Amino acid sequence: MSPARRWLRQRIVNESRRARVRTRFWLKRHPRIRAFLHRTGSLDVDEYTLARGVAVGLFIGLTPTIGIQTVLMLGASALLRANFPAAFVASCLNNPLTFPAFYFGFNQLGEVLMRYLPIRFTSLSGLEEEIAEETTALLLGSLAVAAPVALAGYFVFLYVWRRLHLHLPAPAEPPEPEDRREP
After folding, report:
1. What is the residue range of 93's domain?
2. For 59, how many CA atoms within 13 A lie in the half-sphere containing its CB?
3. Is residue 176 a part of any domain in this protein?
């Protein structure tokens, strides 16, 4: 393995440990949510569950849902059997420092897309029509970005996981019972 690849692998492993510690701490403070996630399989750890978690986190993180993202990720993780901690970490892409730029870009993209779609709010008047158009543009633009990014995130995660050989260790098998017969 090349030195650059080894460095990248070590970096991913270290960041993963930090994220797991933060997530465990958060789950300890929310025992009901932890029990729910265990029941739904959203705390399972295998490469596909993690990849689905990354996709859920990217999708919800790139939609204008600040304030209810965690609730949406909990529901989506339970529904899709995705790893909730992976979704939680991936959703940090959109944070208080980045969301103004994201939302501005989503709005601009949505306005361009609305020119080609038959979406009109003629039944509303003045300010109501403007609010409806801006909100629709924001939602449309964010969905146009979030869906392909989430899909790409799923496949990129699987590719990186396999390329860097980040396979999880096999679960420890219980020791064989020894024969206690006396000679």
Report:
1. 7-163
2. 19
3. no
